[in-house]
Amino acid sequence: MNLPLENTRDLGLATRSIHCGEGVDAETKAIRRPIVLANSFELNSTSETLPESFAWDNTHKFNYPRSRHPNARYLEERLAGMEGGEDCVVFASGIAAVSGMFFTFLSAGDHLISSRICYIGVHGFLVEHLGKRFGVQVSLVNTDHPDEVRAALRPNTKMIHIETPANPTTHLSDIAAIASIAKQAGVLLSVDSTFSGMVTQKPLELGADLVVHSLTKYVNGHGDAMGGAVIGGKDLMTRIRDAASIYLGGTISAFNAWLLMRSAVTLPMRMERHCENGLQIARFLEAHPKVKFVRYPGLESHPQHAIAHKQMSGFGGMINFALLGTPADCFKFLAALKIITHAVCLGHAESLVQYYPQQGNHPELGVLNYPEDIGEGFMRLSVGLEDAADLTADLAQALAAC
Ligand SMILES: *Cc1c(COP(=O)(O)O)cnc(C)c1O
User: Fold this and answer.
1) Mutate-to-test residue for ligand 1 from 194, 198, 260, highest number of ligand atoms within 8 A of CB
2) Ligand 1 mean position, distance from CA 192 (Å)
3) Angle between helices 70-83 and 254-264 (to 10 degrees)
4) Rounded alpha-carbon distances, angstroms, from residue 123 to 68, 128, 139, 185, 239
5) In the chain, what's the furthest Cα-to-Cα distance?
6) For a designed S-S bond to 131, which of 138, 206, 239, 266 qualifies (C-beta 3.0 to 4.6 A apart)?
7) Which residue has a Cα nearest atom 6 of ligand 1?
8) Distance, CA 341 to ligand 1 centroid (Å)?
9) CATH topology for 5-264?
């Protein structure tokens, strides 16, 4: 079978995650897409048909893989179908997707409003590069409060970028409220929805123009491939292809696109489990005497629990908490963990925790500087798919050891 994207709107998410972009190979009748490694494609050879070989709207014509290749295209169809957008452009990483999007829509002299707390690599790109080197005015705003977004608008504002839930603090931004501000002002709204794993919130339905994901996280989920995606209207996607795909060249490899396509099949099921485990672990940590605080959108104690309920259908597997005690205690805790690994990244089948010490081995903290959010003992926990009882037992024994 081959499901054209426009016919998938009424299907459930699980069906879309399995069927969008899938199809029977015309030559071999294989029911799985092959991995196509060619780095050149035959062009049409008449004056009437040659332009077709280079037309972006001709989604299954390829010329040179930096612009687009078959495995990237299959993945784009799957992700557009899952996120509910007209089209999608995939990249080699989440940062390639985010920087490609800003490269496409912002010019020197334009103004961008962004969430104050966002992924460290996005934060650094905005402040150190777009802002300081390329003449884009960047306002970092507390987008927890839509009024602060409205107040930051300038006549030259071109875009608002929010990250919700934010990495690493799980701060939330009210997508619908900020979308209506963006619409009124005639500016684009992009939402980094990585923590939702494409399952627990639908920014396009809430009025966003662009959704970005690091596919390296929940979409991959197996800890073995990087990727990024921007999803939105066809015209916006064509502009991204015309600019970023051609001139930045952050092209995903055919193999990684294939791995992500395969991973996406189980994403809705995996997210359900991440949500179940996330809530259990958050409740366990909140009740523990050695834990200073826990922030998880699904806990009543999360300062924005009401917004979480309004715009999310589940609360995912990302938790932050802080340990009471000294940095030495924190390192003891990390060393004592047996199932949970101290590592960067998130959204994997296995649980990962990252410690953000105030001093020492995280030079990026100097850039971040969120003193009111990240105090001593701050940990970001990505709750995996293991049995929740094993995870709580692991945390309990490591907490006892510190
Ligand atoms: C990881 C991450 C990114 C960057 O993605 P990469 O795939 O690591 O390049 C962007 N945004 C968020 C919220 C992330 O967690």
Assistant:
1) 194
2) 9
3) 30
4) 28, 8, 11, 24, 23
5) 75
6) 138
7) 94
8) 19
9) Aspartate Aminotransferase; domain 2 (3.40.640)
Per-residue pLDDT 10s for the chain (402 aa) are 455 666 777 899 999 999 999 999 889 999 999 999 999 999 999 999 998 888 877 777 899 999 999 999 999 999 999 999 999 999 999 999 999 999 999 999 999 999 999 998 999 999 999 999 999 999 999 999 999 999 999 999 999 999 999 999 999 999 999 999 999 999 999 999 999 999 999 999 999 999 999 999 999 999 999 999 999 999 999 999 999 999 999 999 999 999 999 999 999 999 999 999 999 999 999 999 999 999 999 999 999 999 999 999 999 999 999 999 999 999 999 999 999 999 999 999 999 999 988 765 455 554 455 656 778 899 999 999 999 999 999 999 999 999
Quote the CA–CA distance of 314 and 306 in Å, as a whole number: 13
Q: Which residues line ligand 1 (CB under 6 A)?
A: 93-95, 98, 119, 121-122, 163, 167, 192, 194, 214, 216-217, 226, 228
Cα angle value 210/117/310 (rounded, 5°): 60
Distance, CA of 100 to CA of 244 (rounded, Å): 5
- Amino acid at site 128: E
Third-level CATH fold of 268-400: Aspartate Aminotransferase, domain 1 (3.90.1150)
Atom of ligand 1 nearest to the CA of 121: 4
CA of 346 from ligand 1 middle (Å) equals 9
Ligand 1 center from residue 364 Cα (angstroms): 15
